[in-house]
Task: inverse folding
């Protein structure tokens, strides 16, 4: 079975600083994808970044980068130059071959608060 | 560009009443469609997914059902709501054959409170 673990219930960061949100995963799938989503207080889930299990390089999308360490089964999200609008819940998720790639399994999330 | 609309945004329903949440995707054809539920303070749980009209797969046995009467329409229903059905329901979509890199995009969500 697939499992995502986010051990940080809450994180605080000052504006313009970088922050790392932790995510570890467990799977027996040889092929899988890792995702990060942002959920502001409005509730919508916003896709941020994707990393494939066979990708050699860490994914980057603007201020977001994914620190992928396959041997450690970790996929931490790094947000550079934090902005007040980054305050939200952040969810790590994965999908894999064993579930036909249809099921996106989520962690419990990390609440990020960016202060001025 | 593709958009997804979900309604109603919020609703308060008494126990034992029926439920119908609707979701429509625009700007794409033959999407994969999903219903997720998020309980308070928790991550999302997949309830149903559909790869085509009339094709519904259920992930968790429960008091809910889903239907896909049209290519880009996905409906979540219940005949009699339970208190435990309260939560935040999100419709989502993706395109193409399911694989690890297919991104799933979510709608705005519907807050359901059963009283």
Result:
């Amino acid at each position: 079975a697939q499992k995502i673990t986010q051990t940080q219930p809450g994180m605080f960061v000052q504006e313009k600083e970088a922050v790392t949100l932790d995510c570890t995963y467990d799977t027996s799938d040889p092929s899988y994808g890792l995702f990060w989503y942002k959920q502001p207080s409005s509730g919508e889930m916003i896709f941020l970044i994707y990393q494939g299990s066979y990708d050699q390089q860490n994914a980057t999308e603007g201020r977001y980068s994914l620190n992928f360490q396959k041997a450690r089964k970790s996929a931490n999200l790094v947000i550079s130059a934090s902005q007040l609008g980054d305050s939200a819940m952040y969810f790590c998720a994965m999908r894999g071959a064993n579930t036909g790639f249809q099921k996106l399994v989520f962690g419990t999330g990390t609440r990020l608060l960016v202060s001025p | 560009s593709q958009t997804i609309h979900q309604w109603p945004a919020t609703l308060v329903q008494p126990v034992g009443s029926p439920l119908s949440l609707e979701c429509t995707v625009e700007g794409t054809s033959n999407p994969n469609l999903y219903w997720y539920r998020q309980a308070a303070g928790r991550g999302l749980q997949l309830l149903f997914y559909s790869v085509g009209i009339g094709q519904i797969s259920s992930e968790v046995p429960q008091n809910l059902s889903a239907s896909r009467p049209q290519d880009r329409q996905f409906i979540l229903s219940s005949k009699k709501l339970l208190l435990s059905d309260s939560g935040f329901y999100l419709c989502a979509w993706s395109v193409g054959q399911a694989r690890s890199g297919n991104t799933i995009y979510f709608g705005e969500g519907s807050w359901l409170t059963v009283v």
